[in-house]
């Protein structure tokens, strides 16, 4: 009897350890489905129908492999990304990577404010009201240390975006129509290439790598839970790309017409894709809550990743990371810079007329940052891990090929805007 009870207790303990390993992967992926992601996918559907859907789906394996490397490094090295870059490649490389992280975090703040402004305008609220309120709320959450609870609540609200899955299912795009669009993609059109680069930037964001590696290390997850960590990351990669693809399909079904489609007139217009299923009032409410929740969660996750990144680069070597709840506004200098960044992001959104273009341009900037962060990540995985876990041989070649391919799409698409 005692042996049976002991076996049940052991199994229960194993299940609890597996569940405890879940979280960072799903959280960081869902936070990435913010306003920038939604608007970019909707613009792709409204402008190009299903032509960019294969790219969104094809990025799932690359997204998983990149984030799995970050999680693996955090799990077995017990260090954040910035700390490992500094230890292996020097402080200059760490500062360069940190600059990329700061730009990406600022871009996420910009997209969060565009989402707030766009939703506010749906209900007749001017930016002069919504932007200061949003900035105040974000700074209050960060300064009071309540970001973890608010982050979880914001993500829960952000799951209203799952309504796009229903619309996409009801739209039932025919596989032949998707294949036809894929093989007739206008790859010589600069606008198409630019939007392809934006999709890459919407999927891969530097703060995702920083956050997942640091969160995994700070949680103190046992190395034996690598399988659960990988499952968490895979589930997040599939879910976030499914949501992105669903937004594209819903927008294509509701907004695409003619051979060339059209561009979105406003961020709020994306909510129109839900009206056929939910009715106008319900659709706009669900869309508004989903975008606001996901955007606010993304702003918090990006801010936390930046704070951890700063601490990793400037802390004493060998210092153990603090718990998963620590990190934001550890220094007054960082707090002052963060307040300036939030204010600058809100001011930029307030002064920009075309918020759709601003969202997409921000995602293209992320695509241009991808080679720097991904290159350092691959180098760390090839050198810093123990031999059985090290990235080498065919897997190393595959990662280099995938990263180079993704980087090429981003670079070519960004360059296309100037020709």
Q: Could you characterize what this model shows?
A:
By secondary structure, this protein is mainly alpha-helical. It has a single domain, classed as Orthogonal Bundle (Hydantoin permease). The protein is built from 18 helices and no strands. The protein has helices at residues 2-21, 24-31, 35-48, 53-77, 81-89, 91-122, 127-144, 147-158, 163-171, 175-183, 190-203, 206-219, 226-255, 275-278, 280-314, 332-351, 355-383, 393-416. The longest helix has 35 residues, at 280-314. The radius of gyration is 21 Å and the shape is globular. 50% of the residues are buried. The model is unreliable at 5-20 and 323-327 (pLDDT under 50).
Identify the notable features of this structure and list them briefly.
419 residues, mainly alpha, Hydantoin permease
Summary of the model, kept short:
By secondary structure, the protein is mostly helical.
Mean pLDDT: 84
Structural class, by secondary structure, is mainly alpha
Globular, elongated, flat, extended or rod-shaped: what is the shape? globular
The total tally of domains equals 1
Tell me the layout of helices and strands:
Elements (H helix, E strand, L loop, with lengths): L1 H20 L2 H8 L3 H14 L4 H25 L3 H9 L1 H32 L4 H18 L2 H12 L4 H9 L3 H9 L6 H14 L2 H14 L6 H30 L19 H4 L1 H35 L17 H20 L3 H29 L9 H24 L3
Helix pairs in contact: 2-12, 2-13, 3-11, 3-13, 3-17, 4-11, 4-12, 4-13, 4-17, 4-18, 5-6, 5-15, 6-7, 6-15, 6-16, 6-17, 7-16, 8-15, 9-13, 11-17, 11-18, 12-15, 17-18
